[in-house]
Amino acid sequence: MITCAIIDDEPLAIEVLQAHLSRFAGFAPASTFIDPVEGLCFVQRNQVDLILLDIEMPLFNGLNFIKTLTYKPAVIIVTAYRNYAVESFELEAVDYLVKPVSFHRFVKAMSKVTSLITRKQPVIIGDSMSTGTADADTDNDLWLKVDKKLVRISLGDILYVESLKDYIRIKMSSGELIAHQTLNAILERLPTDKFVRIHKSYVVAFQKIDVIEGNMVKSAGQTLPLGRSFRQELLDRVFKSNKQQT
5 in helix, strand or coil? Predict the structure, then answer.
């Protein structure tokens, strides 16, 4: 779960942000603070993934707040003032929202946040970490070593796997992770009845394919290349699937 803190001296602004945030899956309920000093104490003692932060608050300016942090969470500035945008981005704020914040604009900001956070850390699916080895697969789960951790993912959550030379990117409905492993190595561990190779750099969950057209495949809104040498195998799978359904 992605953890979040909302720090704003206006209770109504906090309510709006809480309502917007509650519509996103994968986020824990936000810790909220009207007093910026209390908020600072909290985030110093409890590392959070995202801070939604006002700027002009009593006793504490939001930009100075960012400068005091000893780690770098994603920060979205939420303010009634437009004149702090440049300085906010110099402090590496992910986005700058001007009140009142519409849900449409909030969605755009959260898209940036989720992309940033899933690149920084793996998305953990299913139960908590195990002391087992990376080969301890079950029929529905797969263990991968990611940043010195063992991460268990659900096979049913995988959309596709992309080769990044000595690494792979696993795209899931709940996010993505990058693991130090080759595509050929992961392919040997994926069940052949559920996954199919469509390109030298891509393996796709067969049941997640929506469209096959020319030299491309569409899966969950993503357009992926279909290699010429892999096209016939994919079409054979489609034909076999149709026969089994009739």
Answer: strand
pTM, entire model: 0.51
Q: How far is C-alpha 90 from the chain's CA centre?
A: 24
pLDDT tens digits for range 19-32:
999 988 788 899 99
| 8 A C-beta contact, residue 17 and residue 101 | yes
How far apart are alpha carbons 194 and 160 in whole angstroms? Answer: 11
Element (H, E) at 106: helix 103-120
Cα separation, 246 vs 235, whole angstroms: 17
Q: Are 16 and 100 in contact (CB under 8 A)?
A: yes
- Burial per residue of 101-118, b for 16 or more beta-carbon CB atoms within 10 angstroms, e otherwise: beeeebeebbeebbeebb
Q: Which domains does the chain have, with CATH numbers?
A: 4-120 (3.40.50.2300), 141-245 (2.40.50.1020)
How many helices (H) and strands (E) would you count in the chain?
Answer: 7, 17
Residue pair 13/32 in contact by the 8 Å Cβ criterion: no
- What is the rounded distance in angstroms from the CA atom of residue 40 to the CA atom of residue 34? 11
List the structure tokens of 35: 């007093």
- The DSSP bridge partners found for residue 197 are 203
